[in-house]
Amino acid sequence: MRTRLLRGLGAGAGLLLFALPASAQLNSLATIGGKQPISSDQPVAFTADSVSYDREKGIVTATGHVEAWQNDHVLRADQITFDRNTNVAAASGHVVLLEPDGQ
After folding, report:
1. pLDDT of 95 higher than 90
2. Residues 19-23: contacts with CB under 8 Å, at least 24 apart
3. Domain tally, the chain
4. Residue 35 gets which letter from DSSP?
5. φ/ψ of residue 16, rounded to 5
6. Which structural domain, as residue segments, surrounds residue 80?
7. Could you report the per-residue pLDDT of 17-48, keeping only the tens digit for each?
8. Residue 21 located in a structural domain
9. What is the pTM of this model?
10. How far apart are CA 23 and CA 65, in angstroms?
11. 103 part of a folded domain
């Protein structure tokens, strides 16, 4: 398993998954229920069984036990894709978003 720390999710091997402007996607999730939003200025780290990057399409795909975190927010999924062109991230398969209070 590898751990990546990204800023704006475009770092590390020309990737990344989120550093995330995709945190904008996470921001909308984190504001559900009036919770404090996730900061797009903070780096996002993640682990996954494998990570691939399609340079032509600008898409990063993390698969297998993916866990992304920023501060105390954690996103878990079977797969997370991040489109560097549109700054949109999508999680699929057993998706769980944990707030800092563990819920």
Report:
1. yes
2. 19/43, 19/44, 20/44, 20/70, 20/82, 20/87, 20/89, 21/87, 22/82, 22/87, 22/88, 22/89, 23/70
3. 1
4. P
5. -155, -165
6. 2-98
7. 444 444 444 444 444 455 555 666 778 888 99
8. yes
9. 0.62
10. 19
11. no
